[in-house]
Amino acid sequence: MAQITAALIKEVRDATGAGMMDVKKALTEAEGDIARAKEIIRASGIKAAGAREGRKAQEGLIASSVADTAAGQTGYAVELNSETDFVAKTDAFVELGDNVVAAVVAADAQNADAVLAAATEAGTVKDTIDEAGALFHEHVKLGQVASVSGPHVEIYAHRKSVELPPSIVAMVATDEAGAEVAHEVALQISAMAPKWLTREEVPADVVASEERVATEKSLAEGKPEAIVPKIVAGRMNAFYKEVVLLEQAYVKDPSKTIGDLFKQVGGQALAFARVEVGKGEDAE
């Protein structure tokens, strides 16, 4: 039997927000398998003891830009984190974001390492960020980095309040025809936070996990085993409609999907990205 250590319990609690006893029970049932323990907690309908996002969220901004390329356009989004929103909303921090994204565009930097190495007046983006930390007397760091490319790229930058810089940036790359609805789709991405473009892009392990959770929930609810597969299929369709962009209901007209919007103009979505302050995997 696997040893249920304090470190294992902490990791699952941080990820799910569930209480200690619920986590320990799930880990015991899962024989120490963290991923399986998370599934058990979800299947059991255990409520979070506290929102993980709230504990790990940081302040800062998302700087973004679109650049013309030989093949069309590329959109870039870069997260810069500070410790307080007081610093994040200053003109100097906003200027820092503008300078960093300009360096990213110039270098066509599309991952964190490339961004940190991009050239700036101070030397590199890393040097610029380090200098900013000294200036603001706060820990300033690079967060998430995203880029999308296609014939047309649309960016929507969302501010949670007028005095704060953008905290969410949604980008969508489309073909030329799809550009007609690209702004509406960027708004949708910002508001509804899809994770994948099509259901075919959903990783197999995610699908398998969702199917297990749906099956266990159905059985726990006392549904007859003979109809459980049909119930699971329905729940999987609901899952796809929540996390797949082209299957999401259009927020301004729920009778249509985002896929329908593209069909109406004979266009295609090629890729998208959504970056929100404090929501990266490495946020602390």
From TrEMBL:
Residues covered by the Translation elongation factor EFTs/EF1B dimerisation domain: 76-279
Transmembrane stretches, start-end: none
GO molecular function terms listed in the Swiss-Prot or TrEMBL record: translation elongation factor activity
GO CC annotations, alphabetized: cytoplasm
Function: Associates with the EF-Tu.GDP complex and induces the exchange of GDP to GTP. It remains bound to the aminoacyl-tRNA.EF-Tu.GTP complex up to the GTP hydrolysis stage on the ribosome.
Chain residue ranges for the region called Involved in Mg(2+) ion dislocation from EF-Tu: 84-87
Main localization category: cytoplasm
Highest taxon of source: Bacteria
Protein family membership: Belongs to the EF-Ts family.
Compartments reported by the entry: Cytoplasm
Protein name: Elongation factor Ts
InterPro entries to which the protein is assigned, alphabetical: EF-Ts_dimer_sf (IPR036402), Transl_elong_EFTs/EF1B (IPR001816), Transl_elong_EFTs/EF1B_dimer (IPR014039), Transl_elong_Ts_CS (IPR018101), UBA-like_sf (IPR009060)
Keyword line: Cytoplasm, Elongation factor, Protein biosynthesis
